[in-house]
């Protein structure tokens, strides 16, 4: 079956612009995670959803970052007033249930100029 | 604040040799995960360890968890070039949430 997909694969934007990153999890997976990975670092937790609700958003760096999962499937990570420091690879992962194997998407590489 | 430390950060080894990667964490947890990441690619789940003393093996890789020592090991037996990648451990602390905290990674290079 299809794995986790993320769009776009690459996004170049200018400082101050708004961006949306999309994640399509594996069908039937209830848990969905967003991470940010900088070069040479491990993934940094941002937020996770159990169903439609954000169960823990403590990793979001500030209020410019927001994520939704309105129907318990697709999720969108939204970044307002982008800054150069937001440049990173944004990874999405899903799992059938919490504590089970996470399946990662290919990531969206965001570059803020 | 939970810290997850891996060592070594970089490992270069010859084919056929054995080695161990260590993952130490600073808080109570019995949920630890190992992942592999190839250059420019996303992460692939290797092992899920959910109890003290858990041991999992797949091919040349074996992972174990000692929750009392707050330590997990990833042992490589008779390394082959295809194992070259970056390996991450991740811990989910006891805190009522399923927030994964990743280590900094161990970059493994197996020389032919």
Q: How many E-type strands of chain B?
A: 11
Q: Tell me the greatest interface.
A: A-B, 27 and 23 residues
Which series of helices and strands of chain A comes N to C?
EEEEEEEEEEE
Q: Low-confidence parts of chain A, pLDDT < 50 over ≥5 residues?
A: none
Shape of chain B: globular
Helix content of chain B: under 10%
End-to-end distance of chain A, in Å?
37 Å
Biggest sheet of chain B, in brief? 6 strands, mixed
> How large, in whole angstroms, is the Cα Rg of chain A?
13 Å
- Structural class of the secondary elements of chain A? mainly beta
Oligomeric category? heterodimer
Give average pLDDT of chain A, whole number: 95
Shape of chain A: globular
Number of helices in the DSSP assignment of chain B: 0
Question: What low-confidence regions of chain B span 5 or more consecutive residues with pLDDT below 50?
Answer: none
What separation lies between the terminal Cα atoms of chain B? Answer: 40 Å
Can you count the helices of chain A?
Answer: 0
Throw out a few tags for this protein.
heterodimer, A: 113 residues, mainly beta, B: mainly beta, five-stranded antiparallel sheet, 11 strands, 0% helix
What's the short version?
Chain A is mainly beta. Chain A is built from no helices and 11 strands.
Explain this structure to me?
- The complex is a heterodimer of chains A (113) and B (112).
- With 113 residues, chain A is mainly beta.
- In chain A, 0% of the residues lie in helices and 49% in strands.
- Chain A is built from no helices and eleven strands.
- Chain A has strands at 5-7, 10-13, 19-24, 31-37, 44-50, 53-56, 65-68, 75-79, 88-95, 103-104, 108-112.
- In chain A, strand 4 (31-37) and strand 5 (44-50) form a beta hairpin.
- With 112 residues, chain B is mainly β.
- Helices cover 0% and strands 54% of the residues of chain B.
- Chain B has strands at residues 4-7, 10-14, 19-25, 32-37, 43-49, 55-58, 61-66, 71-76, 85-91, 101-102, 106-111.
- In chain B, the strands form two sheets. In chain B, strands 2, 4, 5, 9, 10 and 11 form a six-stranded mixed beta sheet that branches. A five-stranded antiparallel beta sheet of chain B has the order 1-3-8-7-6, with no helix packed on it.
- Chain B is globular.
- The mean pLDDT of chain B is 94.
